[in-house]
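tool_call: predict_structure(chain=1)
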Amino acid sequence: MADFRAYPRLEAFERLHISDGLTITAERWQQAHNYHRQRQNFHYQALYEPGIVYGLGVAPLPDQPDGRLLQIQPGVAIDIQGNPIILKTPEEFRLTSEASDGQPIWVYLVVNYVDPDDLRRAPVAKTVQETFRIVEKLHLDPNDVELCRVQLLPAAIAIQASTDVFAPQPNQLDLRGRPTPQPYRQYVVRVGQINGDRPTDATTYAGLTDLLRSLAGLYPSLGAAPTVQPFSAKALSRETAIDCHLLYLPYNTLLTLPNPGLQRLQSYLATGATVLVAADFGDTNLLNLLDIGQELHRALMEAERDGELEPMTRQLRAEIAANQQAIAQQLEQLEQSLRAIAAAWGLPLHESGDLSLDHPLRSHPFLFSQPPPRQGHPVYIKNWGGLVFLVGDLSLSWGRSAMPPISREVLRSAQEWGINLLHFAAQRQHWVQSMRPLPLAPTPTRDSLQQRVN
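tool_result:
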């Protein structure tokens, strides 16, 4: 189903005021009845997505001349307005659309709720039955509940059931777009990526895309736009709309942005959005230092286990301390180069940027005592307002094309932290914008003639 959302109306409900002596007329009875219908629909419309509850299968009928006759099987669905759609018996439907101009077309078979009040009926009928309408369309509308779709080729070929339901071919029934009722997601996050000249840009894009796909299984309360919006570094200097909650920006690309691009990012942050500035270990001098640190720790553990003499262990401890100091100095240099830019954005860089245990990037929805590692090394994370600074680019560990290849456990841990980041970005922008006053309607003014008369 297309990405529609019908928000409940911003109108107070009105119900019939009951008192002794009230005369019940057909109009008042209808008013009382409609009140309960509206309340029921409001409840479903506010909390749940529409879709097929069960049944409503679609099957081609055999032994027909043109191969276009379909059977819609019994079942139940609920539309976007909260109306129930019930098919009690199988229905036959013949597709009539044809591909023209030598181009294939997509045809959607949908079912719609039909209010009996909108139909002609006998005035003496004591009851009315809610019904439905099955329609074929070239484009989906908000009130449609999709039953199936099919790509029709220009040649007249009979419609068939899918030989592979996960990869239907043209002129085969495609059920992959059938919606399923479920609670509405709290936020629907949009992600963008600024591409530089890094060879890992494609891996980052694949990682961001896989992270968005993981939401359905790992945290369905948070939805996502299906694709990552790509931007070039040059596009930031132009009036290109950046309509996303989270924008991924490579650290080295940020350092080379001209002033117009930096000003665009400042305006973007002012909307409550989040910028993720990421530097991988290989983009800095840290990787070699971290590898040496691991070797020194390993050597110290072996020396202590084998009972080496004190001078040996003392020397290893001194080398470890020097290595840790070099790592800290390198991180400080990275942070200082970022501070000069972030200060112009008005971010609170007087704070350390360290994440407390209850910081949302470490606590919601998944708990982390330490950030997940990257290439076996600890990741360093800082946060100032809408700026998240990441040393150890986890975006390269979010997807199936992660480099170097990683285990499923490492992939899942990195994705869970990535979901914390997505939720942080979506919630932050929502809360920032919720605290801003809406523009007031202009006060009506008297026309110029009345002003002259008075």
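agent: The chain has a mean pLDDT of 86. Proceeding to next step.
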